[in-house]
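Sample entry as discussed:
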Amino acid sequence: LDFVDALKNKIVLDIGAKSTDIIIAEERKIWTRSVLIGGNDLTKAIATNLRISFKEAEELKRKEGIVAMTEGDKAFSSHAGAISDAVSPILVELLTNISKSIGYYKSQFGETKILSEILITGGCSKLKNIAQFISENIDIPTKVFNLLEKIKGDLDFKFTEELAGRMDVGVGLALRTVTPLTTRANLLPKEMLQAKEFEKKKWYVYGSFLIAVFIFMTMTGFATWANRRKSIALARASALIERYTKFHGTIKGRI
């Protein structure tokens, strides 16, 4: 999977159990933010709505989890309507955070940037209709990201479909053993990054300032010296003229 071609100007949503990572890729740079909303919140909402245990709700979410986009979707299973009603408010809150993150990213890096697609990964990417739900509410084409499709080999299609969105981290770590990568990540705020960069370069700045001061003082000193030489030369010339004038007057008087 080529990072530049596959992820440039795209958003990756890694919806995990406890949090969701929002990752925006641009050329060979990434911007990321974590939101404390994840699959466990959906499970708790289902458990509360259906009055069942967390374990039962988790199992139900995996088997029958759905976001109902039409009335017909509620007939997907006997619990589809109740599950959709439970998870929808949580997903709306998640979408609000995603929209704010996109807005912040554009305000920092350019309002004209076009984010072409959202790729969903993580365990909750298996929730039926979640891609359509996100796409219609954020107005960006969205699909479930199945990294296993990029791996060539004798893999069973049903196997890859079942594990889609759950094995991306493992596959990524495995690929690093095949193609070692040098990854540099810095999650500090922009202001702190600028302060750290200045800290690294401050001696160059101070040195440049001292050199500039030295050059200024040298030029000023040279100009002062030149003006002084000029003043001395003018004074000598004036003295010679004065002596000549007196001498000329004396000679003229005698004649």
